[in-house]
Amino acid sequence: MFPQDEFKLTRQAVFALLVSAAFSQTANAAPAGTVVFAVGDVSATAADGKVRPLLKGTEIAVGDTIVTGGNGRAQVRFTDGAFSSFQPETRFRVDQYQYEGKTDGSEKGFFSLLKGALRTVTGAIGHVNKKSYQVATPTATIGIRGTEYLAREGNSLSVSVGEGQIEVCNAAGCLVVADGESAFVKDASTQPTFTQQKTEAPPAPPQEAKPEEFRVAENRDATGGLTLAPTLLSGPGYLGAAAGQVFFSYDWYSPFVVHSVFMQPGNAVFDGAGVLTSFSADGAEGFGGSVSATAGVISGGFNDGIIGWGRWDSGTGTTTIPYTCVFACEGSGPLKDVHYVVGQPTPAADMMALYNANMVGTYSLLGFTYPTALDGYGNRTVGTQPVTGSLTAYFGSGNLGVTLGVPIGGNNFSIDGYAYFNPTAVSGPNTAHPAAFIGYGSVSGMSYGYAEISGLFAGANASRAGLVYQFDTYYAANPIGTVSGAATFKQTSLTMGSPPQ
Prior knowledge:
single chain, mainly beta, Jelly Rolls, 2 domains, 17-stranded mixed sheet, eight-stranded antiparallel beta barrel, 50% strand, globular
């Protein structure tokens, strides 16, 4: 049976899932893309020479040159589904761009990386017609075949491919660079060559909020090329979980830890880039009342069409749950560093079928947020290294195991966790949705500690899983306060089996 008391322990923090940042749209010609993240000195110079600052929601037009300063970073989602992340000291120009929702030969995306570093996940343009996509640099040109790659230009060109292939060409010749390979081009008259040296992007300034890690959704066609995932659409029926901090006006002396999973689906609102901007639900955690949260500054976010994840740097939350607990459960307050996962929960019928067949699902890491920490003195730490992890779900017994590596603030924490869910539950006001789970885990990297974990399964046959985690570092050699983060997983196998004894 599902341990309902486990849910009750976290009801006071239920409003940790989020809302709205303005997403601007112009009524003129269709834009090439939209800024989904910007921090520091970031601007665009239009074809007519006019300069404007780039903020989240700003549209990018043909002829714009995106310029980032020494502390500037930006992330742009193009209309064909491509994502590009621009590092400090970068100049990137949109030379030609056309996409009308179909790959019929009219689509085109020609760009210039004049200097700096670019990480990109390509979209529909170039997927069918390879010659319709090109990034020109002073050293060479880059063509693609459906891929994720990092390029850095500065009197020479360095490239590394994460997925797919690119073709690097100049007057001296061409070189095809595939998954896991890197290449170097000394100058415009020297032939591209392979190298063991991976391309590196400039490090982030200390304590700087970074855009969230994004990974290519594993959607492939028969030839192995990337296909685009649909964007999560605003509306009802979403489950979510969140972890972060909230400050009550009547609890001014310390932040209140937020860690919660919604027992019942609520209403999620996404911006044009598929980033969650608000969440609201009635009957949250089975205690009646309502809960809502609204984003202020969004640090970053992503979704693969099935599950979404991200972090709000700030926001506000309100709950009217009529219940008495250690900390008052009714009220509102500002949110800080709230990490979330959100998705359409796996249907109850699928959860029951997985239970009846005693299926075991294994999952690999799909994406994550960089963890954050906040101590009682207001000192904030933001992680800069990738999170690692894997998950195994035992649907026949309603439990799962998860491991996470969480590097932050000079510490290398690892979580060995477990969680419970009830795949046979009949979803209702006083029960958890069968796709929701909650649990705990031990934390290594300090003499003593445990983490709270909550999350959900999403997609048909639980093809995705997402969770948030939170733990205190009081017993670490280098205490940095309460750490929060989010991670999502994709199913890699589904077999019949038995849980470990």
